[in-house]
Amino acid sequence: MRHWQKTSLFTIAFLIALFIGLIYAFNLSVKVTPLKNIEFSPGEQKAMAEQEYDSIKPKNIIIFIADGMGFSHMSLAMMTQQLEGKSSVWDEFEVRGWHNTRSIYGPLTDSEASATAMATGNSTNFGHIGMDKDGNTLENIFEIASANNYTTGIVTDSYIWDGSPAAFVAHSRNEDDARDILKQIAASDLDLIFGELEDLGEDDVPEKDESLEIIGKRFQLLDRSLELPKGNDASKPVAVLFDEDEIQDLSSTPNLPQLTETALNYLSNQESPFILFVECEEMDSASHSNASGRLIDGLAALQTTLELVMEFSKNNGETLLVFTSDHETGGLAAVSEDDYPNLQISWGTKGHTAAVVPLLAYGPGARYFADVKRNYDIGRVLKNLISNQSFQSQ
Ligand SMILES: [Zn+2]
């Protein structure tokens, strides 16, 4: 071996030793994740198996969507309840299953596409609110409900033009066109809307005064005492609009459970049957930022609200409660690494995953949700429950 060969071998050996030494010295870990792109076919839409709808139909329906919540979020909620030996709200549901959230584009979805599937019974593409992949308007369950004399309401801890609530009331191919969605909400037959105004003044987002003016044209704007109109005004459409991130967790005043309780008071005082959409969006926001503490606070708000609507459904006896999610966010796992039996939260991504999500139902008509496989099946069952026609593939 020549001298220069010896020298370069020595240099290479020295550099490897230095590298290993640095890893130990700074406790760095080198992680090689075997990522592999898997080819998936587009999200083809199939007809749902024919269901026999008997006389058992709910008078009222509560649709509760936990944005970004997967089975690990649900497991964490159960664990943080620490109700050893006691029943938990999750155990009360008569149907406990799952659905596949894929969009027409493929195995992944966003809130707009998944909420549109649940609100209309049709699969669509990313960013499409109440529209199919080609931009054609899809009839949503709130429109059918209003035509069938239901009272309808939306409660969200997010902004009111966000994808999930918007898909139940508006039609837009541009998820960012807040002004247009606000005008559609104002022109709709919706009876109640409680939520936030966010990103005010940004592109296509009107300022607060303009937002209040648009919504205030048809809705009576309540103040934060949440006092509902009485007497002859008790059936007037009502709205409460909060600033960005004002309704975050149980420490907010008012918080999601209080808003939901007020909405149930308003709706159950009307003569007609009702459909209430409740959204807890905190799972998605906390999971996008991998913020474990915020996630735990969000789960507490979610569970308190869920306990409240479950209690309402049980006492009322004529109200179907459907709880689900639009997609999983964060690739969350509750793990135990070093200090068993303590739990740690581990995140796999800051985006959405293709994981299937929980679907739970309680009350009259709950059993129809046991046949659900894809997100759009939820919209089809809901359409069947609130109308006299039978809805299948379009
Ligand atoms: Zn998201």
Structural description of this entry:
The protein is built from twelve helices and 13 strands. It has 394 residues and is α/β, with parallel strands linked by helices. A nine-stranded mixed beta sheet has the order 2-13-8-1-7-3-4-6-5, with helices on both faces. Strand 10 and strand 11 form a beta hairpin. Helix 10 packs antiparallel against helix 11. Mean pLDDT is 88; it is low at 26-30.
Number-wise, the strands total 13
CATH superfamily: Alkaline Phosphatase, subunit A
Shape from CA axes? globular
Poorly predicted parts: 26-30
Question: H/E series, N to C?
Answer: HEHHEHHEHHEHEEHEHHEEEEEEH
Helical content, roughly? 25-40%
Largest sheet properties: 9 strands, mixed
CATH class: Alpha Beta
Individual helix count: 12
Instruction: From the alpha carbons, calculate the radius of gyration and give it in angstroms.
Output: 24 Å
Give me the CATH fold name.
Alkaline Phosphatase, subunit A
| Amino-to-carboxy terminus distance | 77 Å
What share of residues are in beta strands? 15-25%
Mean pLDDT level: 88
Number of domains: 1
Structural class: alpha/beta
Question: Any idea what the CATH architecture is?
Answer: 3-Layer(aba) Sandwich
What small ligands are held by the chains? zinc ion
Strand order of the largest sheet: 2-13-8-1-7-3-4-6-5
